[in-house]
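Sharing a chain and its predicted structure for anyone who wants a worked example. Both blocks are below, sequence first, tokens second.
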Amino acid sequence: MATSQFLHVGLTVADIDRTIAFYEKYFSFKTTIKATFPAEFIGSVPQLYRQKEGVYSDFAFIESPDGIVLELFQFSDPLPTEVPVWNKPGYHHICLKVESVPDKYKEMAADGVEFFFEPGYRGDPANHEYWVFLKDPDGNMIELQ
């Protein structure tokens, strides 16, 4: 039987350098690839990218310390950001494990990162397992555990 392996998640962003800096600073991601898909490439597969003629995309692969990869795209003709709606089918958020949710919350909130609520207990408070949701620079949701 064939097996599969999770490789990466694609994420379109407004400012690729700002997004890279965010994930590097708070979650120790490292950039492994940074390049551009030229307009000719994007245009050669219109059924996939669905972009008007002449649009190109910068892209990057950033990798977490445990090997989780985000593939970032910044298109030359971006659409406005939409707030994810939880009950709309599609990808909704990513979840990252951090050493201490309360400590990471304090660090990031002090820098002005937007959270949906303060850290709370997941399940039994005796286990001291916290969780919280925040927004990355483009409003994409991240859950911390």
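Comments welcome. The chain has a mean pLDDT of 92.
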